[in-house]
Amino acid sequence: MYVQQFPPRFLSILVLLFVLLISAACTPVADLSSPPQQAAAVKLVVATHDSFSISEEVLAGFQTETGIELQFLSLGDAGEALNKLILSKDAPLADVFFGVDNTFLSRALNANIFVPYASPLLAQISDEYKLDPENRLLPVDYGFINLNADRGWFAEKGLAIPATLEELTQPAYSGLLVVENPASSSPGLAFLLATIAHFGEDGYLDYWRALRANDVLVTDGWSEAYFEHFTVGGGGDRPLVVSYTTSPPADLLYATDGRTEPASVNVNPPGGTFRQIEFAGIVAGTKEIAAAQKFIDFLLDTRFQEDIPLQMFVYPVNSGAALPDLFVQFGETPTDPAVIDPAAIEANREAWITAWTDVMVR
Question: What is the pTM of this model?
Answer without folding.
Answer: 0.84
